[in-house]
Design brief:
With 311 residues, this protein is an alpha/beta fold. The protein contains eleven helices and 14 strands.
Length: 311
């Protein structure tokens, strides 16, 4: 949905434009335009990490400062060390300085997310990890998770029919119980095909997970539908999650059922989560409150002298 045939999709480009336009406007961006005077600047990293934001910066410059020439010294998803030059820009000094902080903010934030996500994926050694819809920069955060090797889950609300606690309250229509019978009725009668390619139902007990799985599999067989269901085991912890996964498998609920563990998933507990057998874990820790990678942009000495002489 974000990358197709070696280029960003319209969805991705529109998201980039929304975020970069906002950042530029907030920063009082005023381009100078083409000039005979050009200087060279370099973006230099101050710590190691995984690069993300190349396509975002390219799009921003293409739209707002197309006369600035750029030469990337690292690729999207590539690794860099402290002191590496990752980007060289040639353009007027005022134009380069007008986007200096925006470029550093974008590259630093997105690279921070991709770097941390890669640490999670390596620690999980094959188990999948997904971000949630708790984001600060929307689809850009999701892209950074993808670059780091994580799953994006849903980019937007409409990408899947997801029945979480508040959705269940809305579906009750006055029925306050969260009984098995209520859950069976939802699974049997709700039109989950109104959007998205898969469905997620949140549960918080093993018995509820089994009820939902059985009702879903029965519905798929009775209606000849072929729609995967993700059972989100919410705040159940590694021990209960492992028990729930084993119970679901022992009942043969495998063809349409996938399991997701969410809620209070921490990096320090990943060894425990790896033994649960769950298909995917999801966490907002991949992108919320993640430290940015420290970078700086430096003009060549000649460029600094030219800028001083102009003033």
């Amino acid at each position: 949905m974000l990358w197709f045939e070696d280029q960003p999709t319209t969805l991705f480009l529109e998201s980039i434009d929304r975020w970069t336009n906002t950042l530029l406007e907030d920063d009082g961006f005023k381009p100078v335009g083409p000039s005979k005077l050009t200087v060279r600047s370099r973006v230099i990293t101050k710590e190691a990490g995984t690069l993300c934001g190349v396509h975002v910066i390219n799009r921003m410059l293409d739209v707002h400062l197309p006369h600035i020439k750029r030469a990337w010294q690292a690729r999207e998803g590539g690794h860099f060390q402290s002191g590496d030059v990752i980007l060289i820009l040639d353009g007027t000094p005022r134009d380069i300085l007008s986007v200096e902080r925006i470029i550093l903010n974008i590259l630093g934030r997105l690279s921070g997310i991709s770097t941390l996500t890669e640490q999670w994926t390596k620690a999980l050694n094959g188990m999948k990890v997904a971000s949630t819809r708790k984001t600060s920069w929307g689809i850009l955060d999701k892209w950074a998770v993808h670059v780091g090797g994580g799953l994006t889950h849903r980019l937007r609300k409409g990408d899947a029919a997801m029945i979480k606690e508040n959705d269940q309250i809305a579906l009750r229509e006055g029925d306050e119980s969260r009984s098995k019978e209520t859950m069976k009725r939802w699974v049997k009668t709700t039109d989950f095909n109104w959007h998205g390619t898969f469905t997620v139902v949140e549960v918080d007990t093993i018995s509820l997970a089994l009820t939902v799985a059985k009702s879903w599999c029965n519905r798929m067989m009775e209606t000849n539908e072929n729609r995967p269901l993700v059972i989100m085991l919410d705040n159940m912890g590694p021990t209960r999650t492992k028990e729930a996964v084993m119970d679901l498998k022992s009942h043969g609920y495998n063809e349409w059922i996938y399991t997701e563990a969410s809620g209070n998933v921490k990096f320090d507990d990943l060894e425990e989560w790896k033994s649960t057998g769950v298909d995917v874990i999801s966490t907002s820790q991949l992108n919320m409150g993640v430290p940015s990678i420290d970078m700086s942009m430096l003009l060549d000495d000649d460029g600094i002298r030219e800028l001083i002489s102009q003033n």
